[in-house]
């Protein structure tokens, strides 16, 4: 065949152009624990192969307070370094101006998630994030040790304290050095806000700022709850908890050095990994009740969403990856491999997920009634509100203040932050 050279060259160009239809490189934030990163990378790579795009993953700081600072800096500078970011349940109102409104792209996918989470991700009618997983605070306990010492799972903090004291003394006497009754997250960061809100709400002490904007923290229940927790430090909990985040507590508990641990669902998969010293020895329950008229079990509501950087030059491809990552296939795999609670009601009927995570069905009520932090009502001011709360709590835990004084002073500080309106 004798094709004129010019025509041949043109045909080649067209063919090359079609095959290489502009491939995008999408950078996605993937989470911070090792198995989480692995699973995230696997799925992101599968999406890249299928769509012909390229994916880069990056691991944001595990401490959400540090991650928020990083994102505020990046997005404030309109950086395009990261296309898809992971946002905490308390951030939509803080980062809203820098996040793409996903509504135009989702084709109704948001209707497959729990409406309350979609609502939380919607700011002024803009859908700024798609839910990835939902969190609630849980009590992890050593089934074997409770049985050995003839105790049952505590229903009140007082029972938890008594059991922790008894078993801590017995295990230490039996030669388990560095054994502790209870570990939780009390470093000065967002995680302490989550722990302390559980103590306060469990004493009927409200949610720091109520949904109608009332500053409620200065009350006897809240003060009593903080004083109770201060009493644990150096007795049933190591002084070191004042500097513990989630992974520090998991390390101690997984090593067999604690009876009780407060943590989120992700810990379940890691505690039961084949090489975990406590594999098969752990139970999960609702957190204990406090004292007083409004006493109840309270778990802080948490969870993470994927959101698209508004300045991303590849918004369309980024949303495509985001929808795949928040879709049923990836959420199911993450639930089984990493015990991340799905945000899709349909997945709660899935037998494989239920088998891997019995607590998801057993503790449905804990998730359904989880207590939200006051991020919606305080909007952009939430980070200051939360920091003031965790600072006040940290002072009480470090025995630098009594609960009553700390909550009174905190009320004054929150008034200043509110300045008339939230
Ligand atoms: C978990 C929760 C998140 C919370 C954080 C605190 O990641 O999902 O909502 O802010 O813990 O450390």
Automatic annotation (TrEMBL):
Compartment(s): Periplasm
Signal peptide feature range: 1-23
Main location: periplasm
TM region positions: none
Sorted UniProt keywords: Signal, Transport
Pfam families linked: SBP_bac_1 (PF01547)
A single cellular component GO annotation: periplasmic space
Domain of life: Bacteria
Matching PANTHER family: ABC TRANSPORTER PERIPLASMIC-BINDING PROTEIN YCJN-RELATED, ARABINOSE-BINDING PROTEIN-RELATED
Family of this protein: Belongs to the bacterial solute-binding protein 1 family.
Identification of the protein by name: Carbohydrate ABC transporter substrate-binding protein (CUT1 family)
Species whose genome carries this gene: Rivibacter subsaxonicus
């Amino acid at each position: 065949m004798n094709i004129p050279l010019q025509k041949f060259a043109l045909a080649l160009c067209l063919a090359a152009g079609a095959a290489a239809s502009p491939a995008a490189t999408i950078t996605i934030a993937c989470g911070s624990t090792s198995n989480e990163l692995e699973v995230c990378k696997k799925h992101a790579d599968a999406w890249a192969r299928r769509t012909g795009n390229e994916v880069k993953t990056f691991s944001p700081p595990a401490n959400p307070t540090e991650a928020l600072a990083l994102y505020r800096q990046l997005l404030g500078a309109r950086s395009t370094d990261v296309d898809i970011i992971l946002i905490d349940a308390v951030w939509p109102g803080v980062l809203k101006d820098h996040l793409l409104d996903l509504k135009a792209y989702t084709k109704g996918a948001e209707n497959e998630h729990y409406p309350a989470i979609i609502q939380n991700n919607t700011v002024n009618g803009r859908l700024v994030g798609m839910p990835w997983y939902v969190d609630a605070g849980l009590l992890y306990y050593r089934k074997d040790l409770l049985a050995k010492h003839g105790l049952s799972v505590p229903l009140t903090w007082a029972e938890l304290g008594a059991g922790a004291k008894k078993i801590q003394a017995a295990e230490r006497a039996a030669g388990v050095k560095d054994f502790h009754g209870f570990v939780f997250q009390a470093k000065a960061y967002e995680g302490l806000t989550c722990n302390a809100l559980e103590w306060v709400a469990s004493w009927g002490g409200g949610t720091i700022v109520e949904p109608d904007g009332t500053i409620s923290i200065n009350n006897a229940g809240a003060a009593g709850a903080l004083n109770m927790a201060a009493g644990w430090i150096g007795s049933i909990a190591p002084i070191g908890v004042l500097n513990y985040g989630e992974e520090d507590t998991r390390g101690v508990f997984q090593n067999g050095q604690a009876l009780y641990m407060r943590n989120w669902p992700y810990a379940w998969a890691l505690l039961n990994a084949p090489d975990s010293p406590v594999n098969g020895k752990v139970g999960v329950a609702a957190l204990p009740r406090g004292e007083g008229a409004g006493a109840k079990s309270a778990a802080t509501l948490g969870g993470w969403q994927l959101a698209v950087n508004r300045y991303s030059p590849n918004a369309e491809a980024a949303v495509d990856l985001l929808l795949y990552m928040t879709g049923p296939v990836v959420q199911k795999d993450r639930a089984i491999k990493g015990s991340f609670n799905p945000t899709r009601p349909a997945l709660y009927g899935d037998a494989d997920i239920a088998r891997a995570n019995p607590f998801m069905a057993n503790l449905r009520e804990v998730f359904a009634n989880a207590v939200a932090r006051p991020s919606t009502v305080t909007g952009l001011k939430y980070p200051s509100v939360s920091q003031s709360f965790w600072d006040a709590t940290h002072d009480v835990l470090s025995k630098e203040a009594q609960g009553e004084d700390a909550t009174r002073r905190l009320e004054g500080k929150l008034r200043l932050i509110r300045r008339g309106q939230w």
